[in-house]
Amino acid sequence: MNALSHVPAVPAKFDRVSQRRRAMIAMIHVARKDLRMVDADYRQALFERTGQLETNKCTDAQLGTMVDWLKSKGFRAIPKKKTAQHPMARKARAMWISLYQLGAVHNASDEALEAFAKRQIKCEKLVWARQSDARSLIEALKAMATRHGWPQPNLPPIQLQASLCEAILVKLKDKGIAPADWSIHDAQHKLCGIEKREAWTADDYQRLAEALGRKLREAGPVEARHG
């Protein structure tokens, strides 16, 4: 018989303070995404309220201050409605948000996408859509993107995100917000205040699209066909 078999099991201990701290940090990052804060704005807000640039360096009280501020900006820590998670639905959701940055739709919410999908594929909920219907929805979103100056060739994600930034910049130039000779990297640094870096990823271009999209919305009403 194993001698250890007589040693009583020790109940697992849970550090409630640490658990609460992790929950607040997670809530801050969820709120940041829900409020669609670009990295520079988020870091500035965090520093102004806590004196720190990273949540893991904040005290519990500082984390609480940041959570309260995010709530004052409209964040609501409530369970989200069940959304479709199959690949086509995730792609549709990503495209819908990109179209929002482009000014092609006015509302980036899942509810607005569901309403658009209902009109397009006659399905009450995207989570119930067949794959063939979801493909039709993707094609409708691609057509909308093309009409708004963002063609949809079969490109790797990084090139597709870069072309989205280019399309938003064209609209900013049309509104006189950016000079005609600016590249997206000129706009990145001079208009959005995002630091230059050697190598860019698809996520970097996505963050730039969010920043450029916000500048476009700040410039005034943007023509939109749906949403």
Low-confidence stretches: 1-15
The fraction of residues assigned to DSSP E strands is under 5%
User: In sequence order, what are the helices and strands, one letter per element?
Assistant: HHHHHHHHH
Mean pLDDT: 84
Secondary structure class reads mainly alpha
Radius of gyration: 22 Å
- Count structural domains: 2
Describe this structure in words.
- This protein folds into 2 domains: 16-72, no CATH class; 87-218, no CATH class.
- The longest helix is centred in the N-terminal third of the chain and has 19 residues, at 16-34.
- It is mostly helical.
- It contains 9 helices and no strands.
- Mean pLDDT is 84; it is low at 1-15.
- The chain has helices at 16-34, 39-50, 60-72, 87-102, 110-121, 131-147, 157-174, 184-190, 202-218.
- Helix 7 runs parallel beside helix 9.
- The protein starts with 15 loop residues before the first helix and ends in a 9-residue tail after the last helix.
- Helices cover 58% and strands 0% of the residues.
In short:
With 227 residues, the chain is mainly alpha-helical. It is 58% helix and 0% strand. The chain contains 9 helices and no strands.
SSE layout:
Layout: H1 16-34, H2 39-50, H3 60-72, H4 87-102, H5 110-121, H6 131-147, H7 157-174, H8 184-190, H9 202-218
Helix pairs in contact: 1-3, 2-3, 4-6, 4-9, 7-9
Question: Top keywords for this entry?
Answer:
mainly alpha, 9 helices, disordered N terminus, 227 residues, globular, 2 domains, single chain
